[in-house]
Amino acid sequence: MSLLDRGQEVLDVYPEVAITDDLGNTVVGPAPTPVRIRAAVQPVTADELSEVGQSLLTTYRVIARSAPVGPWARVRWVSDGGTWWDVVGRPRRYSMSPRTAHMDAILRERKDPPSPGDDPVSLGGGG
Questions:
Q1: For the residues of the chain, what is the DSSP string, one character each?
Q2: CB of 90 closer than 8 Å to CB of 127
Q3: Which of 16, 21, 44, 64 suits 105 as a labelling partner, its CA being 20 to 30 A distant?
Q4: How distant is the alpha carbon of residue 87 from its chain centre?
Q5: Is 107's pLDDT higher than 90?
Q6: For residue 58, what are the β-bridge partners?
Q7: What is the mean pLDDT of the chain?
Q8: For 37-49, what is the mean pLDDT?
Q9: What is the pLDDT of residues 46-81, one digit of tens each?
């Protein structure tokens, strides 16, 4: 077992899926049920946006052996009190050898966290 298999943080990932909206269009959004993963989470930035007022842009890097993340996935950081995060862009996948194969993705904290009981599919995508 490597550190890639024993991350210290618990995340619920709502993977991106194709769904049909009320108008019959196929759109991509987060799935209604999560996949729980363990991952390492590292801070990337915490920048104050002074021109917007008292706003804080926080981003983290998630490193895991594998995770079903994509630009329209939604992430709930369980071991951080249940905070909600968007995936920024596509994850990077590293596959030089089976022992070191892993992925990493950048998460940005949501400014409009869902209320308890909200349907993740109706919340729209990240990216």
A1: --TTTS-SEEEEEE-EEEEE-TTS-EEEEE-SS-EEEEEEEEEEEEEEEGGGSSEEEEEEEEEES-----TT-EEEEGGGTSEEEEEEEEEEEE-SSTTT-EEEEEEEE-SSPPPTT--GGGG----
A2: no
A3: 21
A4: 4
A5: yes
A6: 46
A7: 81
A8: 80
A9: 665 555 566 667 889 999 988 899 999 999 999 888
Q: Helices marked H in 7-123 — which ranges?
A: none
Q: Are 40 and 6 in contact (CB under 8 A)?
A: no
Give the other-Cβ count within 10 Å of 44's Cβ: 14
Bridge partners for 45 per DSSP: 59
